[in-house]
Every structure is written in structure tokens, then in C-alpha cells.
Amino acid sequence: MASVLRQAARLASSRCLTQLSAASSTSRLGASSYNFSPSSRNASTSSTIKVQLDSNTGVAIMMFQNPPVNSMSLDFMTEFVIAWDKLELDKSCRGIILTSALPNVFSAGLDIMDMYGTTPEHRTAFWKALQELWLKVYGSGKIVVAAINGASPAGGCLMALSCDYRIMIDNPKYKIGINETKLGIVAPFWFKDCLENTVGYRMSEMSVQYGILYNSAEALKIGLVDQLVPEDKLISTATETMIKWFAIPDYARQISKAMVRKATMDKMLAGREADITNFVTFTNKDSIQKSLGMYMEMLKGRKAK
Ligand SMILES: CCCCCCCCCC/C=C\CC(=O)SCCNC(=O)CCNC(=O)[C@H](O)C(C)(C)COP(=O)(O)OP(=O)(O)OC[C@H]1O[C@@H](n2cnc3c(N)ncnc32)[C@H](O)[C@@H]1OP(=O)(O)O
Fold first, then answer.
1. With a cut of 0.95, is the ipTM above it?
2. 130 lines ligand 1 (CB under 6 A)
3. Is the domain defined by 23-304 classed in CATH 3.40.50.920?
């Protein structure tokens, strides 16, 4: 026990928990004090990220609006991180719901056009932005709930996996998973780690090799999402879930979260530069560029049919 506490103290001074503790305040609100009156809402909006913070409840809703499919472009990820940092610093915000402002898609994952035919410099900036986004969300001390209201492949799935709890609309047409191999590319180790941490070793072994996209019922069955709800209950359920989490004292929960996530975070922090080099080298290959080009053609051709 003493060593756990010593470790927790060490963690508290680490980068991760510096973020975590920024949000710290003990349970100010229980479910009974929940009041979602419109007057208490703070809105802030960038062109691709819309944020509504209810400072009465401490719940912020961060909506992606990068049409047509919320692909994670360099611009989108940069705006995401700016909006995220603002919420991290806001002590009135205790939890963040991630969702999409667009119909039928949570996020189509990484923007393929940022990887296809771009310069190594551009891809370096792109990958750094993705790492940054992931480190912020995965390492956050806030409670983060994914309200998955549509397709969520690859990078979209990573975003959901980085949250503390995943609620998805109960609709078989929405798919989620780490499908990179289907595009002829390889999900990096930290995508795989997040998946493995969530669904276990064997399931992720199958999942990453086959590049499986699961429908909502299958995703629930393997534990990739925690709950399914009808579309009209998604945000209310996410908000109610958040309020329940608020009953746990922040500091104890944050330290516990950091302990559980430390190994995965540390692995990324230690391998960050190598991970960028791998990505740039990998995407420099003609064969990979060809795969990405063919995939884009396929996506566009599908629409033309
Ligand atoms: C040795 C190891 C080293 C490791 C090196 C690392 C290597 C790289 C790792 C990369 C990691 C992560 C990868 C990703 O996240 S890749 C992205 C994967 N995403 C997908 O496969 C999703 C593709 N999209 C879809 O399936 C569908 O679009 C949708 C999300 C289900 C929505 O369907 P829809 O019918 O509503 O829309 P659709 O008509 O298909 O698309 C509308 C337009 O949007 C364009 N588009 C779709 N997805 C993307 C995307 N990800 N990036 C860019 N553009 C996208 C699509 O082409 C349409 O465009 P247009 O209107 O025709 O111009």
C-alpha cells in the first residue's frame, strides 16, 4: 500500500498528473443537483469543434463538425487540442463528452488526404498533432465519455478508446474498429495497446489483423463499447453517466486512472520520436502511397455508384 501511495505521489508530479490535477476539485455536484438549464451554458466554437460547457453541472460537450465525415486532418486536430486545453484549464469543467455534430459519423479517422501525396514535413506535423491529441485525451484527469453517434473506424475508434466510457447508438449500420489492415496500412502500437487494454489480448489479436469493423451489438459484446442506447437518448445518457462518475472524489479517481494508464502513456512518451520516424518512413513507401491512393479511389468510386 505504501509503495502504491509513493507511486501515486510520484505520478502526481508527472506531466500526466499535472494535467490530471488541474481539474481536481472534490465532488461539488451529486446527481441530485444536476440542472441543465440553458442559461448556465457556455458556448465556444472553432470552425471544426463546438463546445458547450454547463458550469452548473461541470459537464462539457465537445462536438466535432468537420464535414463531410469528421476526418482528423491536421487542422481539425490542432483545433481540437486548442479547445481541449481551454477545458483542461477550466476548473468548472469536470467532465467532457465527445460526440459528433454531423449525422451518421462520429469520426472517419485520420484524414487520408493528409497522408497521401504530402511532404514528409507535413506528415511529421500531422503525426505529432495526433500524438498530442491522444496524450491529452488519454492522460486527462477529467472524466471523458464518448457518445458515439455514427461510424467510428480507425482513428475515430482510437478517439473513443481513449475515453473512460463509451456509449454508442444502437444501430447496426454504425461500425467501429481498428480497420487499418483493410487499407493496407498498419495501426501503430499505441492504437493496438488501447484496443488491447479495452477488449483483451486475443480479441485485439484477431481484430487488428483482420481489420474488423464491428456493428454496435458486436462492439458491446466484445466490450469495445460499454453501453448501447437509442439515438434520442445518447446525450442524456452520457450526461447522466457523467453525473454518476462525479460522485467519486476527483483526486482519488484521477490517481487511480493515472495508475492504470501509466504503462501505456509511458510507452508512448518514450517512443514518441521513433513513432514519428516510423510513420513518416512507412508512409514514404511507394507501396503505401499506392494503397492509400487506391483506398481514396475506392471511397470516391463507392459514392459514384
Ligand atoms: C511498422 C509500423 C509503422 C506504423 C506506421 C503507421 C502507419 C499509418 C497508420 C495510420 C493510422 C490510422 C489510420 C486511419 O485512421 S486511416 C482512416 C481510416 N478510415 C476509414 O477507413 C474510413 C473511411 N470512410 C468511410 O468508411 C466512410 O466515409 C464513412 C466514415 C463510413 C462515412 O460514409 P458515408 O457514406 O457517409 O461517406 P462517404 O461518401 O464514404 O465519404 C464522404 C466523403 O468523405 C471522404 N472521406 C471518407 N473518409 C475519409 C478519410 N478518412 N479521410 C479523408 N476523406 C475521407 C470520402 O472520400 C468522400 O469524399 P468526396 O465527397 O467523394 O470527395
1. yes
2. no
3. no
